[in-house]
Design a protein that fits this description.
Number of helices: 2
Radius of gyration: 12 Å
Strand content: 35-45%
Shape: globular
Structural class: alpha+beta
Order of helices and strands: EHEEHEE
Amino acid sequence: MTTVCVKAWVHGVVQGVGFRYSTQHQAKALGLNGYAKNLNDGSVEVLACGEERDVQTLLSWLKDGGPRSARVEKVLEEPHQPRDLPNGFTTG
């Protein structure tokens, strides 16, 4: 099992609409670790670590618009190698 991590920044109407909690629910269902947190510019930063296909499934969900209450305009992503792998998925 190879663990990959991807950091993504989700822009649009993604704060105040339950976006982080919906992302956490999706990530946990996929067995991913990481976080979803609000940034000062109105975007949400997502770190997802796990099996590559599961990380890609979460990224596809984000790009497809996430929860119905959100309006995703763009998702930027890059591979990430955290010093320590996260345990669980938080909404920090």
